[in-house]
Amino acid sequence: xxxxxxxxxxxxxxIGVAILALVILLALFAPLLTDYLPTQRVGRPHQPPSDQHLxxxxxxxxxxxxxxxxxxxxxxxxxxxxxxxITVIGTVLGIIAGYKGxxxxxxxxxxxxxxxxxxxxxLLLVLAAFIGQASPLVIAVILGFTSWAWGVRVTRxxxxxxxxxxxxxxxxxxxxxxxxxx
Length: 182
Hints:
Shape: elongated
Radius of gyration: 23 Å
Oligomer: single chain
Number of helices: 10
């Protein structure tokens, strides 16, 4: 069964994908959906929702709907950037630790355990206070470098089980380099 047909049969996943697609479309087409810029004062402060301002205005007179649409762009970029970084770091370190074993595995596992015992939220608050005004790229990198440990654990355990299979043993006997087997 293909991924698409599995998705169609899973109602919760379908609803989640639909909501994500809607948010992505709203963020991408933000300039077409609103006449204002997110940094443009467009009305009196604290206006209620109306035809001109669908979600009202802020205390400084900014359009809330416009700020939400443009803010979704930044949030999606940070989320996808951090997710990509977490996936790459977790996969690479997990495969190396699981395949190489020995001292390499112990070192990677030690650092993984260190990252896991540090609570993320206080660490992120300290880093945010230290850095000050951070760009979305910096935020994504910080999230990526503080959240990769679970990915390493999962990938390492899967690599340990795959490493014992016959096709890996055959490749090792044929003299394939370990980077290619991994």
